[in-house]
Amino acid sequence: MASKNETVNRIVKVLDDKKGRDIEVIDISELTTMTDYFIIVTGGSDTQVKALCDSVEEELEKDGLTPTNKEGYRTAQWILLGYDDAVVHIFLAETREFYGLERIWKDGVKVDVSDIVS
Predict the structure, then answer these.
(1) Domain assignments of the chain as residue spans, ordered by start
(2) Residue 104, Cα to own-chain centre: how many angstroms?
């Protein structure tokens, strides 16, 4: 079942439409006050990583949502987009594996987004 948060669902849909790989959503609301959700995705190249970032920003801007934080765009190894209730982590595969956010936040609740992704 998709997240209860519509913004998170929209982000996942945009990432899937742009062929982002291995999309994972982790509910960390019970673990930290920083944010409610981490959305983690892998891009196949630095160009795709930037395209995934651009697409998320463009889609959410339609509703007046802009990231409060954006880091890593220039190098495109790991781009972070911070929104109020979700942080989007867009990685190259080797960078994602190295940092292992899924392992670090393993106490969070994985959100099943299989009904959103193709």
Answers:
(1) 6-111
(2) 16
Structure tokens at 90: 């867009």
Give the residue from 116, 117, 101 showing the smallest Cα distance to 4.
Answer: 116
- What pLDDT is recorded for position 5? 86
pLDDT of residue 1: 52
How much is the pTM?
0.94
Place of tokens 């890593």: 72
* Residue ranges in the chain whose pLDDT is less than 50: none
pLDDT tens, residue by residue, 11-34: 999 999 999 999 999 999 999 999
**SS3 assignment for the chain:** CCCCCHHHHHHHHHHHHCCCEEEEEEECCCCCCCCCEEEEEEECCHHHHHHHHHHHHHHHHCCCCCCCEEECCCCCCEEEEECCCEEEEEEEHHHHHHHCHHHHCCCCEEECCCCCCC
Could you please state the CATH topology (level 3) that the domain comprising 6-111 is classified under: Beta Polymerase; domain 2 (3.30.460)
